[in-house]
From TrEMBL:
Keywords: Signal. It comes from Marinomonas profundi. Residues 34-113 form the DUF7843 domain. Pfam families: DUF7840, DUF7843, Lnb_N. This is DUF4105 domain-containing protein. Residues 403-625 form the DUF7840 domain. It comes from the Bacteria. Residues 1-18 form the signal peptide. The keyword Transferase does not apply.
């Protein structure tokens, strides 16, 4: 390998005059070897260790990013090629294509390494113009909350905002984002499959920050947290240089590992000698966990909160009475705008009505399926009317949540359960790699949201035999409550291998989904869902003369949330939809108690009943979050 590296260096040197390039001597080889193992160099090239024989591989999958043909897996070869390129006069027509202009972060780092080399530094007009336009002063980590309606944002998302010098409006800053460059024609199943298997190229983009706020905060109604990073001006400049280097390359995108949050950490690592934040994310990179990693690294400073448009409307509605809400709906939903009803209210109440009506009209007009073509003009008209009133003290600011999205419970969970079913005792060992369920502590997570993938449990019977109890491939519940203006759909989907008591606890595959609505009263959520279930297994053949079972029916659920405990009760009624007239009824109640932020106790009572068959189960669990 050393011979190949030196051969490559000599070939490169052959294309430049001897006076232009200082060739590394044998005495320099150990220094270059050491420099190639420097963590900053490895970070700049996004190398990570993959084994013993070939210990490094760059996570950048675009061969054009490397100057050496060996560069994707050989840090030393890429370092030597870079040193030679930075000493070689560029002979092309477009000076912007010189290596120094394409890789300014590498050049800046190498100049500080005391190599005794005078690198050629040509004018780079395109890079310099772009760098001056960004004009970065500081960097903010931006954390939009989880969004269950998008597979790539179910766990949340992170991006970075570069604050411009002398700019007091964050919306006019630039956002640095890493995301999958997906085919817009791919459906959710194809999108999820490709996202899990690296089927999409991930790309770095730089856009005005207001576009991202509009997308996340307004169109998707997601709260946004912003964290200022403790970066020096030199580190900010190096980050901007590195963004320039990677902005036209691609990295295979993986939802769980090499995702938005992971790659942003990698870019921050490449910009600061102080950071090595990606080391703890070999398999999973949940956005909230990456925020915690930066907090542990000591680089998070002040935090700010930007509530979503729905959070703002819900806060405003708390100050409106029923008559005001009716007037808001009339102003927005009637095809012809009439202001006659406003005269029944005081000037302050009129200002409140017009403010909420304006926000509501904008919210509805942003919905893709809105059929109210007049809403854009209506929003402008309502804003004009609202501007005629005193804007002070119309509404108080939205309260910042007591627990931030990065301060909720940790996302991985293990647990042990002891229980009894019809006189038979059992034990369970469970593991959930991520993320949250309805009985977990609610602080820092979406209300009414549940999300986990690839979790499972092993059962231990009285005779100490071990068996798979359940493998859940995907489990999502979105039970967002309605308010006086917005009625989001509640829905759930679950795909798993699970034990079915009606066929002697055989392991079957079950796909279940449902839709409905949720209402909130104080700390209580009341949900009605209409579910459909399809179960597949050889064991159904004897009872159903077919290897599957299709069911359909309603489910009622109640969830109470306290500070340290939660209670959930549900009743489900499922009818067979084919010639078999069996009906399954499932009633259960569950209670959870938070011992401390990392430990929880749960109790569950459940009854499943079908015709003359019945199964009663009681169990207690101890769960640990880490």
């Amino acid at each position: 390998m050393r011979f190949l590296v030196l051969l490559w260096l000599m070939l490169l040197c052959g294309f430049a005059s001897a006076g232009d390039v200082r060739v590394m001597s044998a005495n320099d080889d150990s220094m270059i070897t050491e420099l190639a193992q420097n963590s900053s160099w490895l970070d700049l090239l996004h190398y990570h260790q993959i084994g013993v024989i070939s210990p490094y591989e760059s996570q950048i999958d675009d061969a054009a990013f490397f100057l050496s043909p060996l560069g994707q897996s050989d840090p030393k070869a890429e370092l030597l090629a870079t040193i030679v390129a930075f000493q070689t006069p560029y002979e092309g027509n477009d000076l912007n294509q010189a290596a120094q202009c394409l890789y300014p972060a590498r050049l800046s780092w190498l100049k500080k390494q005391s190599l005794g080399i005078d690198f050629i530094e040509p004018e780079c007009p395109e890079f310099q113009d772009w760098f001056n336009r960004i004009n970065g002063e500081s960097i903010y980590l931006v954390f939009p909350a989880a969004y269950l309606n998008s597979p790539s944002s179910m766990y949340g998302h992170t991006l970075l905002r570069v604050k411009k010098k002398g700019n007091d409006s964050p919306l006019l800053d630039y956002a640095v984002n890493y995301a999958a460059n997906a085919n817009p024609e791919d459906n959710s199943l194809v999108f999820s499959y490709k996202g899990l298997t690296g089927g999409y190229p991930g790309v770095v983009s730089v856009t005005p920050y207001y576009e991202k706020v509009k997308e996340y905060n307004f169109l998707e109604s997601r709260d946004i947290w912003e964290y200022k990073l403790d970066f020096t001006q030199q580190e900010v400049n190096q980050f901007i240089r590195h963004v320039w280097e990677v902005r036209n390359t691609y990295i295979e995108y993986y939802f769980f590992s090499e995702n938005c949050s992971y790659q942003l950490l990698a870019m921050l690592d490449a910009s600061s000698d102080r950071l090595n934040t990606t080391r703890n994310f070999n398999y999973w990179a949940i956005p909230a966990d990456t925020v915690r990693e930066l907090k542990e690294a000591g680089v998070l400073l002040e935090v700010s909160y930007r509530p979503s448009v729905v959070a703002q409307m819900e806060h405003m509605l708390e100050s409106l009475n029923d008559e005001q809400v009716r007037e808001v709906k009339a102003l927005v939903l009637h095809e012809t705008l009439s202001l006659d009803g406003l005269s029944d209210f005081t000037e302050h109440e009129q200002a409140q009505i017009l403010e909420v009506a304006y926000q509501y009209s904008r919210y509805l007009s942003a919905r893709e399926k809105s059929t109210l073509a007049y809403l854009n003009n209506r929003s402008i008209r309502l804003l004009s009317l609202r501007s005629k009133y005193d804007a002070t003290n119309v509404f108080t600011p939205v309260d910042t949540p007591q627990i931030r999205d990065d301060e909720g419970h940790k996302t991985q969970r293990i647990g042990v359960t002891f229980g009894e079913t019809e006189g038979n005792t059992f034990g369970l060992l469970e593991y959930r790699p991520s993320y949250h369920d309805l009985l977990d502590a609610k602080g820092g997570y979406l209300e009414g949201a549940e999300l986990s993938m690839f979790s499972g449990s092993l059962g231990v019977s009285e005779d100490n035999s071990l068996r798979i109890e359940e493998i859940s491939f995907i489990n999502i519940r979105s039970l967002a409550p309605s308010n006086a203006l917005v009625t989001p759909k509640s829905w759930q989907i679950n795909g798993s291998l699970i034990r079915d008591f009606v066929v002697d606890d055989a392991l079957v595959f079950r796909l279940k989904g449902g839709a409905g609505m949720t209402e909130k009263v104080s700390n209580h959520l009341f949900t009605l869902l209409i579910n459909g279930s399809a179960s597949v297994g050889d064991q159904y053949q004897e009872s159903y003369q077919q290897k599957y079972r299709l069911q359909f029916g309603p489910q009622l659920q109640w969830l109470y949330s306290g500070d340290t405990h939660r209670v959930m009760a549900s009743y489900e009624y499922l009818d067979d939809v084919d010639q078999h007239a069996a009906t399954l009824k499932v009633a259960k109640i569950e209670w959870s108690y938070l011992v401390d932020p990392d430990w929880q106790i749960r109790v569950k009572l459940e009854q499943q009943k079908q015709d003359s068959m019945k199964q009663n189960t009681s169990q207690v669990s101890l769960l640990h979050y880490f």
